[in-house]
Amino acid sequence: MVICKVLNNNVVVVEDAQGREQILMGCGIAFGKRTGDFVAKKDIEKVFALTSADVSGKFQELISEIPLESMEVSAEIISYAKTRLGKKLNDSIYISLTDHLHTAIERYKAGIAVKNVLLWDIRRFFADEYQIGMRALDIVEECFDIRLPNDEAGFLALHIVNAEMDEVTENMYEITSVMQEITSIVKYYFKIEFDEESVYFYRFVTHLKFFAQRLINLNNYADENDDNLLETIRGKYPDAYQCVMRIGHYIQEKYQYAISNEEKLYLTIHIARVVAKNPTH
Questions:
Q1: Scanning 67, 121, 191, 209, which has the fewest C-beta atoms within 10 Å of its C-beta?
Q2: What is the pLDDT of residue 224?
Q3: In Å, how far from its chain's centre is CA 163?
Q4: Which one has a higher pLDDT value, 243 or 44?
């Protein structure tokens, strides 16, 4: 492949046979080379084919500022996340997670610790992503011989969730906070402790994740169900419905967001199920 741009000694930009831009990494891959020269396959260690021109441009800028080792560790973590989750992640993760990881390593070396106030909730709501974050700490330790605090596993987990949901990372903090607020209302309304290993809790949390995303982005369900169905559910699960009304009041007061009848319907069903499967105090 022919070099289109040399970013540094370890990174070049090329075009493949179809004219698509790719970013190649390898120790000394660009040493003594310039635009128009060929890259030998034996020198290529990593290949990035990012679909968005904007993401590719930002990634190239980031690469020029971050050591090769950090880029390689980040790529390994992202590859592990994709395999573990079995999902496609938005290409933006190559920027957000890589930048955060490099900054976290630099902070650690400088003796600066950042507390993750949502760590406990991240572990509850995004268990798979948190476990990937913990594995990321192992990978960092294997490469750099430093052990980042578990707070960083939580931060990395949010970057992964962000890439699953196509959200900006700042929104993931807000989404997690909304989820925490709603689960607290349910917990204290029914005086229960959640069985966080149950499939009902998993389904409830999954629904909350997307509800919170809609709230933060000021989107809402279209009310497609007729009122009769909601009244039926209300009659079948009166306690869960009253809890949903309390949630609705809280959300309206704090976020100026009105929960639609469609949302009330689904929340009532999920709450009824998760409460029925969880022990009381």
A1: 191
A2: 56
A3: 5
A4: 243
